[in-house]
Amino acid sequence: MRKVWVKLIEPIMARVSRRLANKLILLFTIIIILVVSSLTYISYSMLQRESVDNSMASTGNNLLLVGRNLESYLSGIEQLSLPQISYDEFNYALLHESEDYSSRMYVEDYLRNLYFSRNDLEAVYLYVIKEQKYYYVTKENYNITVRVSEHPPVDDLPWYKRALKSPYNRSYQSFVEEQPASLNSADYPVNHNKVFMGYHRLIRSIVSREPQAVLSLYLNSSVTDEIMRDIPFSTGEHLMYISPDGEPFKVDDKQFYRESKEAGLAKLLTPEQKGRVTWSDKEQKYLVIYDISQKEGWKLVKPIPYTQIYEAATTTRTLSVGIGLLFLIVSVVLVSFTSNRITHPLKNLSLQMQRFSTGSFDAQAAVAGKDEIAYLSRHFNKMVEKTNELINERYKMKIVEKNAVLKALEAEINPHFLYNALQAISTKALKNNNDDIVEMVDNLALTLRYCISGKDVVLAREELRHIERYLALQKARFGNRMQVVYAWDESLMELRIPKLSIQTLVENCIKHALEKVSSTVTITIEAHITGTHSVISVLDDGPGISGERLEQVLNSLQIQWEDRAADTAEEDGMESIGLKNLNTRLKLLYGEESGLVIHSTEEGTRMDMRLPRGGVGQHV
């Protein structure tokens, strides 16, 4: 599942991340959604809490008022059932009604007056226990008739048993739930559809306290309906009036009552819960508000669905979501417009950069405004302008370089012509048996050929052969005054060194030694290996270099090689150009660890060319 989700989300994120505008739209959209969602959730939670508090307060107060009215109604029924002042006469009539006509008439008149006293009485029954008969008053064809009928003992009827046990000598009978057929046949013939409650008063003897009769009042719901009409009632809500024994006397939905009873709702309705409890059935969650009468414990119960309590909050939430969506759409449009206004110059700048990267050096970005994008565009245009200038300069340099190469090729013709001419002279001298001239011309020709060869780095073996030819020519000039000694380590014959590097050192010995004195000067050319370097040394035993001049030479070697062209023109006599150029070549080819080291005293001069071990390959 996660892989499928990743496959679905990756193309969308890739598409969004292609453009900066899409990123800005996504960012602001997420911010707006979070803000609207947070505000909606907070307002919804607050409205939920307020709705619950208001429902509990209003419904609780309403049930308290109605409960007191119902309690007063029951108190009135209780007062109605008592003979009160005429209790002795009524008791006497009960004892003698079977043999005394006047007593019988007294009972009938009492029942008739009792029936007429209230509009909610459907029937009045007076059961005489000793005679096992009852008087009853009903309305028949608009006439009030008192009749007498025999009746089996009522000892097994539930309401009679409760009356015997009650300290108040009375019991209530509910008609909400169906009674077993055996009990219904043994009870009074009352129309259950018209009767709301049966109130049974046990009349006892004052002397013996033995039960003498039972006065039963059957009431319709006209008064209770009027009282309970003060309770606001909406679809989905329920209302129940339950006796202290847990019997329902008034319910709006019998099925709901049975289900709540099976689910144990009645057990939750205790004084400790302070008149409110949360309860759930199979379908939904209810806030149950109830009132328990102080006198007897009658319960007036009103379950309210939380969906109904939250209806206002839900409506507000729906409205908030709708407004939030509208706000989101407007915001997305504005953000899209603003983002495109911001990113369009960036897109144009990006296109010009792309053109510039592909070689279109006439790219120019439009500059509008004074913001950061305009700043970038302006400097991009300056960069393009500078680049064009550099390209033009580079182009001109290339032309100059090509011209220099042509000039170099032209100049190269002359050495070749000179080399060929020397070869011709050597041939002529050989024919005339001038061996010395032949040797000198051949050495000069080979020296010239070695100098004009294209190599920049040669083997030490090659450089030494060139030095032998070069010194042979110098021998013809200085004769026996110039002595040459070689002390070269055989293992360094294959060392790669700069071409003409040893010649530069030898020329310096000739210039500062042989040319300065008339005595014999010995030039020693040697090479050896140290722990880190290969060292090539050229020594002479001439008069040495003066301290001031040596300091000038050493200082010139420290100048950065980029500045040598400018500095070289200012040198006196151009005497140290060869050494400085050689030192520069060593730095370029072998790195900063290489270079020249010069020591000079009155006994001679020593010049060391130090090359780091590992060769030229690491630096060129």
Structural notes for this entry:
- By secondary structure, the protein is of the alpha+beta class.
- The two termini are about 60 Å apart.
- It has a six-stranded antiparallel sheet, sandwiched between helices.
- Strand 15 and strand 16 form a beta hairpin.
- It is about 55% helix and about 20% strand.
- About 5% of the residues have low confidence.
- It is rod-shaped and about 195 Å long.
- It is found in: Cell membrane.
- SS content category: alpha+beta
> Can you tell me the residue ranges where pLDDT is under 50 for at least 5 consecutive residues?
409-414, 561-574
Number of helices: 18
State the end-to-end CA separation.
59 Å
Strand residue percentage: 15-25%
Task: Give the neighbour order of strands across the main sheet.
Answer: 3-2-1-6-5-4
Q: What radius of gyration results from the CA coordinates? A: 64 Å
Q: Please, what is the average pLDDT? A: 80
The proportion of residues forming helix, as a percent range, comes to 40-55%
Total DSSP E strands: 18
Largest sheet: 6 strands, antiparallel
How would you describe the shape? rod-shaped
Which SSEs are present, and which pair or pack?
Layout (H helix, E strand, L loop, with lengths): L1 H15 L3 H62 L5 H10 L4 H16 L4 E8 L4 E8 L2 E8 L7 H8 L4 E5 L6 H6 L10 E8 L6 E9 L2 H7 L11 E3 L5 E4 L2 H9 L2 H4 L7 E5 L4 E8 L6 E7 H4 L1 H47 L14 H60 L3 H17 L5 E3 H19 L3 E7 L7 E3 L2 H14 L6 E9 L3 E8 L6 H11 L6 H5 L8 H14 L4 E7 L2 E9 L8
Parallel strand pairs: 13-15
Antiparallel strand pairs: 1-2, 1-6, 2-3, 4-5, 5-6, 7-8, 7-11, 9-10, 10-11, 12-14, 15-16, 16-18, 17-18
Helix pairs in contact: 2-7, 2-11, 3-4, 11-12, 12-13, 13-14, 14-15
